[in-house]
Amino acid sequence: MHLAYPAVLAVLLFCVGLYGVLARRNAILVLMAVELMLNAVNLNLVAFDVWLRDTLHAGQALTLFTIAIAAAEIGIGLAIVLLVHRNRGSSDIDRLRDLRESGGPPGGDSSGGSRDEKSVAPATDNDADNDAESGSDQQVQGPAAGRRHA
Amino acid sequence: MSVLLAQPLAAGHPGFLSPSGVEIVFVLVGIVTLGAALVTVATRQLVHAALWLVVALGGIAVEYLLLTAEFIAWVQVLIYVGSVVVLILFGLMLTKAPIGRSPDADSGNRWIALAVSLAAATTLVTVVVDAFRSTWINVQEPTGPGSGSSEVTGTALFRHWVLPFEVLSVLLLAALVGAIVLSKRNKAGER
């Protein structure tokens, strides 16, 4: 078999996963795209192991390790997503901006002490006044809405 | 080096125009896998995305079988299709994912993401095809257990890779404890 076939398939799968990670909004969809990227790497490992006929079978052993680490990663990732969803009422990663650098709303960062109580409210407390007027429109231009405050 | 390795393996250098049966099956399954992956990252229905992920991961398992890595293929079916997708479906259920079409599944920077991934795909495909143009894998096994059978993989794993294997078990334990700690509900008066 030509080695280019599995290599090109792995490249294309990786880029599909890359698009998913960058373009998706729901955190669980991002985790699915991460799984696609990990599988592309695994396919590369297996293909090169079969090509090189390694006596240590490094490729296949590393593939098994990667699969186990991916299982651990998805477990921890889903636990974090569930925790975020429980605390914030939403798992949209576009709205989780508590840790962003300054340049956003001036009131958002200075009132750090009181944000813990407010964070139970469903997300985007930075743009609460914007939510009222623009509704779902604000989700499409999320970064722009934050810039308007600055 | 690749020429040296490929010479004894591929008898007579088969060309692109005369693909073998394994190559045809590999390309067909690859197209199915790629299509399922595209639907996974493009659909607006969250549960459908998880179910198309099953097709993509199963297709990758078939590709492992075609590459003579049998044990990896069954591990892939067991862990990915069996447990990871079930975990993802439970996660979708517990985060109250909408069943129908959700209009905000894609972020606003979708076109930037598309441009980035297309640029990455173009670059990587060019490099990979250029690098491995004359490289061939011999998937015809000699007699005896193949290089991907569970006997060979297990021998390599427990003879040469024992230490990473044991470290991995510690990592899984840490992940288990971490997931439990993260998902444990706090007491009402604790916060």
TrEMBL record, chain A:
InterPro entries: NADH_UbQ_OxRdtase_chain4L/K, NUOK/Mnh_C1-like. The keyword Hydrolase does not apply. The keyword Transmembrane applies. It is found in: Cell membrane; Membrane. It comes from the Bacteria. Its main location: membrane. It catalyses: a quinone + NADH + 5 H(+)(in) = a quinol + NAD(+) + 4 H(+)(out). It is a multi-pass membrane protein. Gene3D superfamilies: 1.10.287.3510. The chain crosses the membrane at residues 61-84. Residues 94-150 are annotated as: Disordered. GO terms for molecular function: oxidoreductase activity. Pfam families: Oxidored_q2 (PF00420). Its EC number is 7.1.1.-. Belongs to the complex I subunit 4L family. NDH-1 is composed of 14 different subunits. Subunits NuoA, H, J, K, L, M, N constitute the membrane sector of the complex. NDH-1 shuttles electrons from NADH, via FMN and iron-sulfur (Fe-S) centers, to quinones in the respiratory chain. The immediate electron acceptor for the enzyme in this species is believed to be a menaquinone. Couples the redox reaction to proton translocation (for every two electrons transferred, four hydrogen ions are translocated across the cytoplasmic membrane), and thus conserves the redox energy in a proton gradient. PANTHER family: NADH-UBIQUINONE OXIDOREDUCTASE CHAIN 4L, NADH-UBIQUINONE OXIDOREDUCTASE SUBUNIT ND4L. HAMAP family: NDH1_NuoK (MF_01456). NCBIfam families: PRK05715.1-2 (NF004320). This is NADH-quinone oxidoreductase subunit K. It comes from Streptomyces oryzae. The lineage of its organism: Bacteria, Bacillati, Actinomycetota, Actinomycetes, Kitasatosporales.
From TrEMBL, chain B:
Keywords: Cell membrane, Membrane, NAD, Quinone, Transmembrane, Transmembrane helix. Its main location: membrane. Its EC number is 7.1.1.-. Pfam families: Oxidored_q3. It is found in: Cell membrane. The chain crosses the membrane at residues 24-42, 49-67, 73-99, 111-132, 161-182. The keyword Membrane applies. It catalyses: a quinone + NADH + 5 H(+)(in) = a quinol + NAD(+) + 4 H(+)(out). It is a multi-pass membrane protein. Signal peptide: none annotated. The keyword Cell membrane applies. Belongs to the complex I subunit 6 family. PANTHER family: NADH-UBIQUINONE OXIDOREDUCTASE CHAIN 6 (PTHR33269). NDH-1 shuttles electrons from NADH, via FMN and iron-sulfur (Fe-S) centers, to quinones in the respiratory chain. Couples the redox reaction to proton translocation (for every two electrons transferred, four hydrogen ions are translocated across the cytoplasmic membrane), and thus conserves the redox energy in a proton gradient. This is NADH-quinone oxidoreductase subunit J.
